[in-house]
Each structure stands twice: as C-alpha cells, then as structure tokens.
Amino acid sequence: MTFHEYATLYQHNLLNDVVPFWLQHSPDKEYGGYFTCLDREGKVFDTDKFIWLQCREVWCFSMLYNKVEKKQEWLDMAIQGAEFLKKHGRDKDGNWYFSLTRTGAPLIAPYNIFSDCFAAMAFGQLYQATGNADYSQIAITTFHNILKRQDNPKGHYSKAMPGTRPLQNFALPMILCNLVLEMETLLDKQLVENTIQQGIHTVMDVFYQKDSGLIMENITPEGQLSDSFEGRLLNPGHGLEAMWFVMDLATRNNDQALITKAKDITLSLLEYGWDQQYGGIFYFLDVKGYPPQQLEWDQKLWWVHIETIISLLKGYLHTGDEKCWQWFEIVHDYTWKHFPDPENGEWFGYLNRQGQPLLPLKGGKWKGCFHVPRGLYQSWTTLQQIAAKHALSTQPK
Amino acid sequence: MTFHEYATLYQHNLLNDVVPFWLQHSPDKEYGGYFTCLDREGKVFDTDKFIWLQCREVWCFSMLYNKVEKKQEWLDMAIQGAEFLKKHGRDKDGNWYFSLTRTGAPLIAPYNIFSDCFAAMAFGQLYQATGNADYSQIAITTFHNILKRQDNPKGHYSKAMPGTRPLQNFALPMILCNLVLEMETLLDKQLVENTIQQGIHTVMDVFYQKDSGLIMENITPEGQLSDSFEGRLLNPGHGLEAMWFVMDLATRNNDQALITKAKDITLSLLEYGWDQQYGGIFYFLDVKGYPPQQLEWDQKLWWVHIETIISLLKGYLHTGDEKCWQWFEIVHDYTWKHFPDPENGEWFGYLNRQGQPLLPLKGGKWKGCFHVPRGLYQSWTTLQQIAAKHALSTQPK
C-alpha cells in the first residue's frame, strides 16, 4: 500500500464508519448527552453517563467541526452534549462528577481529576467552534481548578497513608502536555509556556528512566523506582500515547532533539511491550518481570494500539527513521486485523491475549467516542503529510 | 475413585504439599508476619503485608492446630503472625488497615471492613488455640466495631453520591454468616442468634432471587434488581461459597429445609456459572448477558473452584442428591487438572478462560494461605463423613 492508500483507509474508516456509528447510536434525544454503553450492533445496554466519555465525545465532534468540515450536524452533536454537562456535570465547587444517571443525577462523586481534564478539553474545543463565552469560561475555570488540585488530586478519597510510600503518578503530567496545547488560545501565555516546560520535563526527564529506556507509571518523589506493585508497573500504551503529545509540543517549539528522543522512546516502549507470542501490545507489565496485580495485564486494548500508530507515524514524519515505518506496518496489520468490525461498524475495544474479542461492546464505561476517531484523524492527516513529503523528495519509497 | 480415596487425596494435598509450602516460604523471620507474594517456586517477589492475607494465615494455622493436630510448629506460625498484627495492624480507633510495609508501617488506610472481618476471625480462632485473653479481646472488640460500621462500611472512602442509587452489597452479610460461627463461644448468645437469623434471611431471602435461582452481588434497598453495571453483576463463586456457610448454620440448627434450599441454589448457580466451552466457573457475569465491566470476567480463579467443591460435598452429605456428586466429579476433575502445581507445590491462582495459568504466582495481593488449605480441610473431612455414611448404608455406591 502507498502512503496515500493508507491515508485514505484511515480517512474512510473515520468518516464513513466510526463517526456515523456514534451519530446514529449515541445521542440521548430525550435527556441530552450521550449513550456510550453500546453493544456490538450499537444497541444501548446501559444508560449511565460517565463524565470522561461525555466530555470526550463533545471534544471529538467539536474537533471534527473545527478541523475537518463545518458540518452543522457535528456541531449540534457537540453542543447537545455540552449543554447536558453544563447543567448536570459539576458539584457546587465546580468539580466534575465521575458519572451521572441518564437524567443527570450525580451518581459517582468527583473522586479523581480526569473528569475535569476532559471537561476542560471539551469546552475549550467547543469554544473554538462556537465562540460562546460560557464555554470558554467553563474551560478556563476548570483548568485552574485542575492546577489547584494537582498536588492532591484524590483528596479524601486517597487510600494511601500519608508519608509511608509517597509516589508521583504519570497520568496527570501526561494529560497536561496535551491539554495545554488544546487550551493554548484561552490561557495566559506565560502559564502555557510554564506548563509545557514542566510537562515535558516531568515526562521526559523524571518518569522516563534512562537505563531501561522505559516510562514508569509511578515513581518516588526523588524520581526513583519504587520496588512495589505500583512502582514496578508499566503501562506501555500510556507512555506510547504520551510520546505523540511530546512530539506535538516539540514541533510547536521546533525542537528536533526532543522529537528524536520521543521517537526513540516510542520504539523502546514498543519493543518492550510487544507480545512476541501472539502479537499486540500488552496492557500492563511489571518492570522486574513479576506478576502484575492487574488481572487484565495480557489483554490487547484498542486505545493502546491506535495511540501507538499515531506516535510511530509522527516519529516517521519528523525523523524519517525507517524503524518507525517498519513497526507501523506491524502494528497497523495487527490492529486492522483484530479491532475494526466491518459487519456492524466501529472497533472492538478489548481482546484477549490471543486476539479474540473479550467483550463484544463498541462502547462502555471506559470506551467511548474518542481514541478511535481521534487516532484515525491523527493518522490520516499525518499519513497525508508523509505522502506529501515523499512526493517532494527525490528518494523513491 | 472411592469416597475414601478422594478424602485421602484432599488430605494429602493439604498436609504434605500446601501446608509445608506456606510453612517454608511464608514466615518473615526478621520482622514477623508473613510474605504472601510468592512466585511459582515460592520465592518472595514483594514484601508488602496485606491485612486480609496476614489475618487469614493466622486463622489457617490456628484452625489446623485446633482441628487437625496440636502441632507446636503450626501454633508458633499463627502466633508470630498475630503478634505482628497486634502491634501494627490497627489505627488509633481500632480499625484494621488494608496493608502495611514489610516492617509494619501503615500503607493503605482502613478503607473497607473486610480486613476487620478477617482479623476477628483470626484472633477468635487463635484464642481457641491459646486461651490468651488478649486475643479474645481483640476479636470481640473488632467484631463489635464491624457491627457498628456495617451500615456505612466505606465511610468517607465511598464514591457513591448518597441517595441517587443506594445499593445493598452481598459480601458483608455473607461473611458475617461464617464469622459468627467462628466466634460463637466469644459472643453473647442472643447476639449470635440474631446475627445468624439476620444473615440467613439476608442471603437466602433478600439477595437470592427466586425467579432466576441466582444470588446477586448488589440489590436495591427494597431487594429488587438494579438495572446498572453493579446491579446486573453476578459473582457465581461468591454465592457458591455462601451456600456452605448457610449449610453449616442450618446443620447447627438442624434445619433440613434450609440445607435443601442451599443445595438447590448451589446447583443453580453452578449450572449458570459453568463455562460450557472451556470448562471451569466464570469469575463474573452480567445477569442480562451484557458485557460486565470487570475485564477479568472470563478468568478461572482458584477460590471459586475449591469453594464450589465444598458446597457440592456438603450438599451431597446432607441431602444425598446425586446431582451434587455428579457435579462434584466434574468440578473436581477441572480443578485438579488445572490448579495444583505438582512440580513446585501449592496451586496456581489465576487461569485464563482456556485454563492456562495467567499468572505464575502461588500467592499475591489477594491469594494467600486461606482458600486452598481451608477448602482441602473442609473437603477432606466432608468426604470422610460421606464415606462413613455410605459404609453404614446398605445401598451400594
């Protein structure tokens, strides 16, 4: 397949399959917001509304409207979700709940900060589409609330006894690397620069471990390995996803050395996380090879694979390293053979180690309208850039 | 195989394999307490001390001392764990932590009540072995603390917003059915009777659903099905384990009708939970056949299988229902083919759906010295009773 043919495949899957699937099955026309628990055919099997996924779907349709085409249907879809969230999503202090009932009653408390991260992302992107000041206000207020809560994001829900084994977690710094670019136009310039520098430093110097070439999920306050279940934990997909966030930041700053470092870490994480026996990337591993506590460790998840494809393609685009392309072909083949469901549309989310669907769902409590469409969009447009670059180049491919 | 041969198999696995495995690999001779994170060969791979498992190992060696043989080595093993727990296990209000570091520093807060349940069980059993009043005092105080906390066991760690979707959970009533018998001699007679009647009622009338013949994990305050992820959840092993607790209570009260009902539910849960394709009992199912949120739903766990064997054997002993024996042979064959590790001793804990070990561990954060030895003891002695009964009977078997 040529670069152009690959690009077309990702584009068509996005626009003719995945986006129509969510447009058709996901809107709750009675109460607003989205259904995300969709079975193989798109039928709703549960009506709870998980804030991560509600926000991510608002973001997704806003992004498509902003970046792909000014389709009113997409904008309407984003706005109806945002209005539901605006009305029901927050507690009186402006913290975002974890989940709501179908009608919008608060179900699970704001016990973590990621609902807030995806809310800021959603309302920031929707503001770009609408210019509606309510939306920018929600995005900005939420962003500052995240910064305020970032040193103790779980509050009284934290089960760790203070002081015994303090650990820094990778997820928030990683997400901030992406969120700050999403919200760049809404924030003070210096705050943007500081957050970017801090984010890059935390991901690439603190959580990245030079000796192993790996990125840990949890490290000591001094940046060292903690020899505990949490401290030995690797989530290869997390690190692989972060690498394209970093490449985007590095591209913005024209920092070729940082791009190369992120590309090298991508390859290193992928080589480590790849299942030599059955193919695909493991969900969790223990850096010392011990049994991880996560029983789902050997499963193959949709988001891990599509995020890896993005990082490989961006790495190839910006550095030309043929290893990125070779790995892209391997991960692409595995992904397209196992995840998409040509019969009913969209992608399966969860495969067992052998590559068979573990659950028949297209959406649930954690899988919604986000990684697949974002990944297809990112891959499509990156492949287009690769094709354009190679068309200009005298080197045959 | 004859009843007697089966009994001998369970007895020998307990006394010549499983108990020696824990005696050899588990004690922390430097700081006290036990290592439970043991790899395939018994080598320690993590030194954290999980209160559930510390307590359960104290209980196990005390029980063996009380019921099997007055071996000093077993009593010493129990006491050294209990002394570590007595010194480090509780916060200033007497709540039991979830986990400690190797040296005994509190690591994870008392966020659930099951640490306390297993502590009461451990110190109650150890008191029977020693007559040490310190131990009975800890058991009694902890038991009353459980009763005090039972309506809000998670306290401020609960993430559910009050009022939106209140649910009753099966685990605590189920455990109390067992705990109250364990502690019978230490508690006020009327409290014992009330707790037993309440426990039986809750398990057999409230959580048991007549229409389906199943036991739900979570139900509404009115005892109805909640059409939500939590409400649709089935944990067949939980219900199957509870049935032998109920049979023990019914035997104590000489209530044959209750024994028959518990036997019928055992068969009904097992028929529902059995994997027709690969054998073994599923870990989680959704009562409406939807995808469960637990990604480990299709795995085969050691405790589910040994607990089921106990209920089938007790059902057969007390009712003579041949279906119990037929199912026992099926579950026995699956269990002994897949879980025990004759090469290195003890049992694997976690198999994938196909029956292959998912993790090579013999112990970890949740698997310790408890279900296997308790189950082997219960099965061995129940099989002995079955053999004795049949030897007296004129009917050939």
Q: Would you give an account of this structure?
A:
Two copies of one chain form a homodimer. The first copy, chain A, is mainly alpha-helical. Chain A is 54% helix and 7% strand. Chain A has twelve helices and 13 strands. In chain A, the strands form six sheets. In chain A, strands 3-4-5 form a three-stranded antiparallel beta sheet. A two-stranded antiparallel sheet of chain A has the order 1-2. In chain A, α1 packs antiparallel against α12 (371-392), α2 (51-67) runs antiparallel to α3 and α4 runs antiparallel to α5 (133-149). The longest helix of chain A is centred in the N-terminal third of the chain and has 23 residues, at 3-25. The model of chain A has no long low-confidence stretch (mean pLDDT 96). The A-B interface holds A 37, 39, 45-46, 48, 97-98, 101, 105-109, 111, 156-157, 159-161, 164-165, 227-229, 288, 290-293, 295-299, 350, 352-353, 358-361, 364-365 and B 37, 39, 45-46, 48, 97-98, 101, 105-109, 111, 156-157, 159-161, 164-165, 227-229, 288, 290-293, 295-299, 350, 352-353, 358-361, 364-365. Chains A, B: Keywords: Isomerase.
